[in-house]
Amino acid sequence: MSEQPGRDRHRWKTFSLAIATLIIVFAAVAAVVAFAGQLDKIGFLRFPLGFYLMAQGLLIGMVAVAFWWTRVQERIDRSFSEGEEI
Amino acid sequence: MSPSRRRQANPHLGAYYGILTSAFVSLVVSLAMFEQLGWQEMWVARAMILVPLALYLVIALGARTLDVEDFFASGRRVPPVYNGAVLAAVLIGGTGFFAYTGTLFFLGFDALAIGLAWTAGLIVSGILFVPYLRKAGAYTMPALLGQRFRSRIVRAIASVLQLPPASLLLAAEIKVAALILAMFLPLSHQLAVACVAIIIACVTIVGGMRSLTWSASAQFVVSAVGFAVPLIIVSVLLTNLPAPQLTYGEMFESLKRLEIVTGVSPSAPSELATALPREQPRPSAKPFLQAFGAISQIDFLTLFLCLTLGAAALPSLLARSDVTSSVADQRRSVAWGVFFVALFAISAPALAAFVRLLMFQDIAQAPANALPSWLNDLSAYRLLFTKDANTDGAIEATELFVARDGIVLALPMAARLPFVCTVLTAAAGLAIALAAAASHLFTLAGSIADDVIRLVDPRSEVLPRLMVAWVAIAATALAAGVFLAFAEIDVMQVAIMAFASAAAIFFPVLLLAIWWRRCNWLGAMLALGLGFATMAAAIAFGGAPIVGQFRLTTVFGALIGTALGLIGGLIGSLLGPKPTPVEQAYFEELRDPSGDALYDRAQRRAAATASQ
C-alpha cells in the first residue's frame, strides 16, 4: 500500500481526467466523421448538420472542453492542497 | 513568499495593447481616407506594410533584455491570454492564414480536418505535456528530456532532431512573409527573403522570448483585425449581418446553383498526396459541401490524427510552456490558445465560401471576353488566370485557375472593396507569418545554443550564454535565408511534413517520459530514433509504393513512426536499466502542480552552493 494516499489519489484523478477529456475529443470527431453523410441530410441554422459540426460544432465543443478541463484540474489540485500557486 | 508569487505581469499591458489596437485601426481608417482622396495604391500599400513593421521592431526593442530568464522564458510572467494568443499565432502562422483558407476554397468540407486537428492538437498538448513542461521549467523541450533521464546525450539528440519540424516551418513562414513583401513593396524575392530573415533575427536577438512574446502579441492583434474586418464587411454586403460564421450557411443554396451552372460536379476521392492543392493555380473541381469528395473518410481521419499529434508535440509550441507564472496559468493559456485557434478555424470556411460564391457569381454571368476587373487585378498579382479552353465564350469552373495562397487576398478584390482592405489583409498575413517565423527561429536557435553548444562549453556566465544564443539565431536566420533564396517550396506540403515529423519524433518520447515512470534513457533514444528513421524513410520514398501497393506517405508515415516510437520506447525501457531514485524523484516532482519550477529550484541550489 502506498505511503501517500492523498498524493496517489491526486495522480489518479489527474490521469482519469486526462483520459476522459481525450476520449471525449477523439470520440466526438470520430463519430461526426463516421456519420457525416447521414448528418448532412439534416439542416441546422441553414447548414447541413455534418458540415456544421465539422466547421463549427466540434470546435465550439473543444473550446468548452478545454476550459472545463482547466477548471476541473484546478479543483483537483486545490482539493489536495497542492495548488498553492492557483 | 515563494519567488513565483512575486512574478507579476505588467498591470498596464491591457492599456498598451488597447492603444496599439486603436493606433492600427486609426492607420487603416486614415489610409482608407487617403485612398479616397487620391493617394496612389502604391503608397497606401507601402504605408500599410511598413508602419506596422516599424511598430513590431520598436516593441521588440522596448522588450530588450540581458537577463537569462527573460531571454529564454520571458521572465515567467506572461499572462495566460497573451500566451494563448501567441500560441495560436505560432500554430496558425502564415501557412494557415493563406494556405489553409486556400485549401478550404478548393476542398471545402474535406479540408476541415486541418482546422479541427490544430485545435485538437493544442488540447492534447495541454493535457499531456504543457503543465509538466511548466513544472520542469526547462528553457527548451530537449532540456526537459535531458533532466528527466539525467542524460546530456538524449538532450543533444532531441535538440538536433528539432531541426526537421522547426526548420521546415521556419522556411515556410519566411517564404509566406517574403511573398507578401515582394508583392506590395518594390523588392525582388531574394531581397524580400533577406529582409524577413533580418527582421525576425533582430526581434529575437534583442530580447529572446521576451521581445518575441510582446512583438508576437502585437502581430496577433494586427492579424486578427486584418482577417476579421474584410470578412465582416463582405458578410454585411452579402447577408446584411456582421457575423460571417453564422450567416454563410444562407449562401449555400446560391453556391450550389452556381457550382452547377459553372460545371462543378460531385467528384470521387483520390489519394491524399494528390488531393491536397499545391500552390500553382488550378481549377476548383469539387463541390464545396460534398463530404469526402476529394479525400476518403480514412484519409480524412489519418490527416486529422497526423496533424493533431504533430501540433501536440510541436517544439515551437512546447517552447512556450514555461513563460507563465504557474502551472495553472500555463493550463489557462492553452485553453485561450484553443479558443483563438478555434475562432480562426470557424471563420476560415466562411471566407472560403464567400470567395467561391463571389468568383462563381461573376464568371457565371460574364462572357469570356468581358470578365470583371478584379479578375485582371488578381491576374496582375499572378494569383489567378482564366482560359476559355472549349472556346464557348464563357468561363467555367474548370477554366478558372486560382492560386491556393491568394484566396484571402482575393476576398476584398472580388467583393470590390477599396484597395486598403486588400493591403490590410496582406499586412495581417505578414504579421502572423512573422510571429510564427520568429518563434520557429528562436526555438531552433535557442535549443542549439542551450542544448548543444553549452554541452561542449558549459560556462554559466550570463554574457557568454546569451552571446551563444545571439550567434545561433543570426546563423540560423542566415541559413534559412540562403536556403529560401534559391529553393522552391510549397508551404502547405512543407508544413504538413513538419507536423508529421513532430508527431513521429517527439510525441512518443514525450508521452513516455512524462507519463511512464519506468521509461529510461534507452527507451527515449529508441523512441526518438525510430520516429526519425520512419519519417526519413517516408520523405525519401516520397509516397512511392514500397511493398506491393503499400505507400509510405508523409502523413501515414507520421502515424507509423509514432506507433514504432512508442513500441521502441517501451521495449528499450524494459530492456534498459531501471530508473535511478533521482530520476524517479524528478518524475514525481513533475506531477506536483504547486511550488517553483524544478529548474529554478536547481539554479538557486547551485547558486547557494557556489556562494558558500
In short:
The complex is a heterodimer of chains A (86) and B (612). Chain A is mainly alpha-helical and 86 residues long.
What does this structure look like?
The complex is a heterodimer of chains A (86) and B (612). Chain A is mainly alpha-helical. Chain A has one domain (5-79). In chain A, 76% of the residues lie in helices and 5% in strands. Chain A has a two-stranded antiparallel ribbon with strand order 1-2. In chain A, α1 (5-34) runs antiparallel to α3 (49-79). Chain A is elongated and about 55 Å long. The mean pLDDT of chain A is 89. Chain B is mainly α. Chain B has a single domain (13-488), classed as Sodium/glucose cotransporter, CATH 1.20.1730.10. Helices cover 72% and strands 2% of the residues of chain B. Chain B has helices spanning 13-36, 41-62, 68-73, 80-107, 112-128, 130-136, 141-148, 152-161, 163-184, 189-239, 244-247, 252-261, 272-275, 297-312, 315-318, 327-365, 373-380, 407-414, 419-456, 462-486, 491-515, 521-541, 554-575, 581-590, 598-611; strands spanning 384-386, 400-402, 545-547, 550-551. In chain B, the strands form 2 sheets. Chain B has a two-stranded antiparallel ribbon with strand order 1-2. Chain B has a two-stranded antiparallel sheet with strand order 3-4. In chain B, β3 and β4 (550-551) form a beta hairpin. Chain B is globular. Classes of the chains: A mainly alpha (86), B mainly alpha (612).
